[in-house]
Each structure stands twice: as C-alpha cells, then as structure tokens.
Amino acid sequence: MDKVYKHQDVEKKWYELWEKRGYFTPKVEPKKKPFCIIMPPPNANGSLHIGHAMFLTIEDIMIRYHRMLGDSTLWLPGADHAGILTQVVFERKLEKEEGKTRYDLGRDEFFRRCMEFTLSNKKIMENQMRAIGASCDWNRTSFTLDPKFNKPINMTFKKLYADGLLYRAKRMINWCPRCSTALSDLEVIYKEQKDPLYYIRYGPFVLATVRPETKFGDTAVAVHPKDKRYQRWIDKEFEFETLIGKAKMKVIGDDAVDPKFGTGVVKVTPAHDPVDFEMGQRHGLETKRVIDFDGKLNDKCGKYKNLNVYKARKIVAEDMQIQGLLEKVDENYTHSVAICERCKTIIEPMVSLQWFVKAKPLAEKAIRAVKNEEIKIIPKRFIKNYLIWMENIRDWCISRQLWWGHRLPVWFCGTKNLSELQLTMNPSLPKSNGCGEIVVSVNPPNSCPKCQNKNLIQDPDTLDTWFSSGQWPFTTLDFGQSNSKLTDFNYFYPTSVMETGYEILFFWVARMVMLGIYMTGKIPFEVVYLHGLVRDAFGEKMSKSKGNVIDPLNIIERYGADSLRMALIFGTSTGRDVKLGESKIEAMRNFGNKLWNIGRFIKINIDKFKEQNIKIREFNTKSDRKKLSAENKKILSQLGMLTQGVTREIENYNFAASAERLYKFIWHTFADKYIESVKEKLRQNDDETLSVTIYTYSSCLKLLHPFMPFITEEINFSLTRRDKPLISSHWS
RNA sequence: GGAUCGUUAGCUCAGCGGUAGAGCACUGCAUUCACAUUGCAGGGGUCGUAGGUUCAAAUCCUACACGAUCCACCA
Predict the structure, then answer these.
(1) Which of A295, A322, A349 is the last residue in one of the domains?
(2) Mean pLDDT, rounded, for A471-490
(3) How high is the pLDDT of residue A54?
(4) Average pLDDT score over residue span A188-192
(5) What is the CATH classification number for the domain harbouring A230?
(6) Aminoacyl-tRNA synthetase class Ia domain: from which residue to which, for each copy (predicted)?
C-alpha cells in the first residue's frame, strides 16, 4: 500500500470496474425481495451542484446497503428536461452567445437546438454522477422528454379526460409575460416590494390601488356588506369621470373587502386580478380584458393603448393628478407581488382558456395513502405540510405556451376551437375549416372522428413539466409498455423509497402520489425521505452571485468523493438544511487518511508474519471466541454493537448517526485504543491478535462501504488481494 | 393571517425524562514508531426567557422573545 492514499487514481479505477462488471444492474428474480429507488432526475440544463451530490450520496448509501443485504437492488437514474427552466436557461444562452431569441429560430429549430443542449448536459451530468460514486443502473437511464414516454403520458392525459378529471376552461391563470406562458400556482413566488399606493377618485368614492392602469378594466366597485359608510350604495349605480370619458359603474357588497384597508372601497377588475375574478363570478360582472398577453394595454384603453403596464401606470397616475382624480399617494406601501419562479418577471394575472386537472378527487386518495401510513413520510413533520396542501388543493393548470416540452395529445378539427391566445402566438398555423371537434388521443389521429376531415391540428401547447415527471416512478418502469409478466413495473413497483428535497414536496412528490395511484391503482413508493438544502458554512443559500458556491467536482478533485459524501451527511439531521464548509470536508478527508493508515499498519504486520512464515489463523467468530484474550473479546463485542447500531440507524434512515458511529469506532475505539494496546503483542507475533485485528478492520470496511465506497474498496483489495469486491459482499 | 422548525461549548450540530456529548476551533505536551491529513492531556456550557408537571426536565406542558422556512386572494 502506498504511503498516501491517492483518490484521483483509485476512484476512477473502481467505478469503471464496478460498472463494467455489472454490479449496478439487478437481476429480476421473483423470489428475491426488490429494493428500488427512482432517482429524482436532475435538470439537464447545467452541471451538477452540491444539492445533487447530497441526494446522490443518501440514495447511494441506501442502494449499496440493500445490495449488500442481497436484495435485488435497482437505482434508476435519469435526467429531466425541466420544461420552463430549461427553456429560460437556453434562451439566455442563445441571447448571450448569438444575440437571438427563440422567435429568430422558430419553434422546430429551437426545439432541436434545445434538445442538443439538454442531451449534451445530460451526458456531462452522468459522468459527474459517476464521479460521486453513484451506483445506479445506467442500462435503465431515462430522460423525461424521450419520445418513448409520449405513450404513457398521453394515456394518462386521455384517461383523465375520459374520467372528467381534465377539462379545458377559461380561468384566471398566472401569466408570465417574459416566458409567454401560463403557470401553475406553484410556479409563482412572492416578493416583498415597495410600490406607491394611489388613492384615486371614482365619482363619490375614493379608493386605494397600486394598479391604476387596470382601471379601464374595472366593472364594479366593491365595499364590505356591513360597512356602514357605504351600505346605502350597495347595488346602486353611479356615474363618474374617467381619463377616457364618462363611465357608469355598479357598487357591490362582498365579504372579500377589508373595510380597514385604504378607504374600504376597492375597484373590481375581474380580468386582471384573481380576487376580483372571483368577485366577478359571484356577482355576475363583466370580465373586461384591457391588458394583452404581451403585457401592454389594449384598444379598450383609449390613448393609453400599447403602453406596457408599468409605463401606463406612471402616465395614468400623472394624468389623474392633472385632472384632479388623484387624491393622494402613499409612497411607503409595502406588499408582495407575484413573480415567475424561473425568470423572476412580475406575473400578470389573466383570464385564459387552458387545460386544468381537477385535483380534488386525486387528492382524496393521496391523502388517504399518507393518513393510513401506506406511504410514510420522513421526517414526520412534513406529513402535516403535505396534508394541509392536499386538503386545500386547487385545480392544476397543466397547459403551457412553451416550446420545450411534451405536446398535448389534443387535436383540433380546424382552427375553430383553438384559443385566441394560441392563434396569436402561432401565426404559422394552417388556417383550415373543420367541425371544431376536439380529439384527445394517445396516437395522432388520422382524421376527425366526427367529420372525417384529415387536416387536424395538434394543440400547440406543451404540458407542465411536472405533469410528466409526476408519472416518473411508473413510466420509467415501463408501465403499459409490455404484456410480459416479469416487467420492471411488476417487479419493482411500488418502489421502495423516494428520496428528494423537501422543496419539491408539492411540485413533485404530491403529484407522483396522485398520478401514481390514479394510473396504477397502487402507491408509487412506500417511503418518502426528504433531505434539506445544502447551505454554505454560514447558513447562507449558495448562489453564483454571492460567490459562495461549493462545486462538488472541484471538491472531489481535491479531497475525493468519499470525503465529500461523508461531509454531506456527517453531523446532519434528516430534513434539515445542512451547513457545509471546507473544514468539514477536510475533517472527513483526514478520517479517510486515518482509515488508510490503519490499513497500512495491518498490511505491514501481515507481510511481516508472512516473511516469518507464521500462519495467520482464519478467524472463526463462533467457535474461537471463548478462547480469546480479554481485549480481543472486548473489541469483538464492541464491533458487534457497532454492527447492530449501524444497521439499525440505516434501517431507521438515520444516516448521519450511522456514519458518526463508524467514525467514532474506527478512529477512537479501534485505532486509538485497541491498536495502540495491541502493538506489543503484534511485535511478539501473536497471531490471534492479528487475526482479530484483521477481522475487526474488514468488518469496518464493509460497514463503511456504503458511505465511503472508493477508499474502502481499495483498502479491502490491497489487504486481501481477493477478487471479491466489497460492493458485492454480504453486509454482516 | 395560518402552520412548521430551530434557539445546547467560540463555530456546526447530536442528545429528547435519570449526574451535560461529538466534530471543528483553542491551550499544553509528545513525535525517527501506520498516520502532523498524528497522538496524549486539557480549558470551555446554570442546554433562549418565565412559569408549570415530576422524586427527577436540554429532554414533557404553557406562555413569551429571537431566528428561519412553508402556505394564504395584503386591493
């Protein structure tokens, strides 16, 4: 053994050997118990970051442990096309490198280029996963936008549609003017910001608003029904002066109005505000669109037409000031605005014709599965989060006006039933007459089933990326692809553990539970294990702009993957954010060094015994145990406790606790105490002691292998020269 | 507004009913010995605050303070 452990050479060597010999690929053996983790597919729009290293480590620990237990163990890797995010990332790249927009390329070319970009990222990412030591089955690697997934995804779409759980409707949606797409409620985040609050005059009323530019779309004024100041006005109409002439408006009474806010009077703009939309529905108000999908005022706004909302806001306020319609302005008003999660543009709420999943019926089963503990969530405190979200679930808008994603399996007979939005956004669509029939079909239909027209137009919209990834646990296992009895799906589904970050509990986990149960009749996984965010040493979120990003590959180069893996789980607590600084990684590298040197010490002794032709007895725990010296008995009993402890902690998903036990035992019990106390005996060629030392050490290597696979494998090989790698050895 | 989590040694965190623990940092000593990516020894905490339950409380309960996160339609 070399004096110094050289992870650079060792890690690559072992990974190649493991992969080449097929240890990552399980045999489907009906008699054997399966253990299966479907990897959360990383977004293929960049390289791996430390958060990926985190889940890869945790999952690899479970996978290696179960493989060593003898379970038929499948870890299925993949990559996510990550619809909107990738489109945004690629558009930025296009802008930066070529000065082009997606419109310059056109839809087909944009899609092709984006696919090229994504697939090349995927390849890079896969090699990065290898560098971390992820022992996943590359034969089954999947990509969410692989055409082979069209069929199962379309099947789901069709079934939902047939069951009345998927509908097309004109609803209030979150519109991102930059991405030019509708977003689900989850894809919107809120940001505190200071905006002027304008007190504007509406005939007899003064009311407060941050959006005076939407006044052209107002179709009522609302007050609280019990507000004594205004009660007499309810249901009455009033006439008043606006910037573009006289107008008439009705006063409504609605509980949604907070009498304590502003003057207690609000303008109601059903077309451009979610609360107002609901009020409009309750009171039968007209929904008057005044902002177009490009974020500009339309021709209902008179001379303000074509101004974008922010410019319009300023000008409208100024003009109102001039006309004496502006009472006062509160410049210190703070509120939160909705922004696009991915590109941070302020959301424009719009009424639009989109596809929605009726979520409640799906949620009911998803709630039951968790309540009756068919699905366990670890740590437990997330159960409440999950249940509260599920119980208050709202319909899910799944259509996107993006180019990067699965197309909706919807065909229109002629352009008649395409939405106005779709027609404007897709000017190249063939103008054709048809009966307007809407066909939902798994495969492209040849002709309209109603009028036999052959010119069907596929819905230009794409699916929310989470709609397809929400089916990942069964689509990757070839659900519905084969009639054979021994498919991956039949064997590995429901999968064992879904390990992922708590931040996508709703986005992903919740959807997988709903769609998994809906399509397969079974839960998609038995356990949900949620890990926390990796933060920097000071608890700050890592970000490129802050410059505090720890690049896992850089760390692996300098300290080795084992050190990084150990640092990511040592001293952590399930589901809590992890603070990671370089000193921790260094400490784990030192531990590896300690482990290495124990190995060297033992090897030196083995060699010495061999030189002197002293036979090292093969140690048999059962029969020889009683005859051993006191200290040998003691270390073996401590080892027994360690084995039990480590096993129990892994079974309980306390990976940190098991790693800490191993660290403590190997360094402070075995090296510092036992080996130090036994040195003299080894000098005197005591073969019993050497044999116990080897046995104890080998057992430690095995227990440590899931955590630090490379160094343990290398030492094990150097010590035994046997062609039986740890990856395939038996746990205990 | 609702919910959740956290507050324990200088730092990061474990412990979650029975005489305060780990890693890092710190101090002193050691070093041709497998390892200075080391060893030995040591300093350092009335476990956020105030009440309560208990023979016994970091540990259970109740308030409060501070910090963080999530959810919600703050015009």
Answers:
(1) A349
(2) 86
(3) 92
(4) 88
(5) 3.90.740.10
(6) 13-580
Q: Tell me the residue range of the domain where A650 lies.
A: 577-728
DSSP secondary structure code for residue A405 in this structure: S
pLDDT of residue A364: 94
The pLDDT of residue A348: 92
Asked if A622 and A537 count as a contact pair (C-beta separation under 8 A), the reply is no
Q: Which of A640, A34, A165 minimizes the C-alpha distance to A440?
A: A165
Cα–Cα distances (Å) from A705 to A66, A272, A637, A659, in that order, read 12, 58, 21, 11
The verdict on residue A244 lying in a domain is yes
| Assigned token pair, A72 | 């038929």
Domain end call among A322, A349, A376? A349
**Which nucleotide's C1' is closest to A586 (Cα)?**
B37
Residue % of chain A over a pLDDT of 90 = 54
Q: Measured from the CB, is A657 under 7 Å from any atom of strand B?
A: yes
A186 touches strand B (CB under 7 A): yes
Nucleotides of B under 7 A from a protein CB: 3-5, 11-15, 22-25, 34-35, 37-40, 70-75
The per-residue pLDDT for A619 is: 66
Structure tokens given for A713: 């494998």
Q: Domain count of chain A?
A: 2
Does residue A569 lie within any of the structural domains?
no
CB A593 under 7 Å to nucleic chain B: yes
Q: Give a yes or no: residue A466 inside a domain.
A: no
pLDDT beyond 80 at A546: no
Of the candidates A458, A467, A418, A466, the one whose C-alpha atom is nearest the C-alpha of residue A439 is: A458
Structure tokens, A440: 């939902």
pLDDT greater than 80 at residue A610: yes
Residue A325 has what pLDDT? 85
**DSSP per residue over A272-334, as a string?**
T-HHHHHHHHHHT------B-TTSBB-GGGGGGTT-BHHHHHHHHHHHHHHTT-EEEEETT-E
Domain CATH number, residue A663 = 1.10.730.10
Structure tokens at A686: 């005591």
pLDDT given at position A614: 85
Is A567 within the bounds of a domain?
A: no
- Separation of CA A369 and C1' B15 in angstroms? 33
Residues 6+ apart with CB under 8 A from A154: A409, A441, A442, A443
What pLDDT, on a 0 to 100 scale, did the predictor assign at position A458?
Answer: 93
- How many angstroms separate the Cα of A561 from the Cα of each of A45, A56, A136? 23, 11, 16
Q: Are A403 and A462 in contact (CB under 8 A)?
A: yes
The complex's ipTM works out to 0.92
Mean of the per-residue pLDDT values of chain A: 90
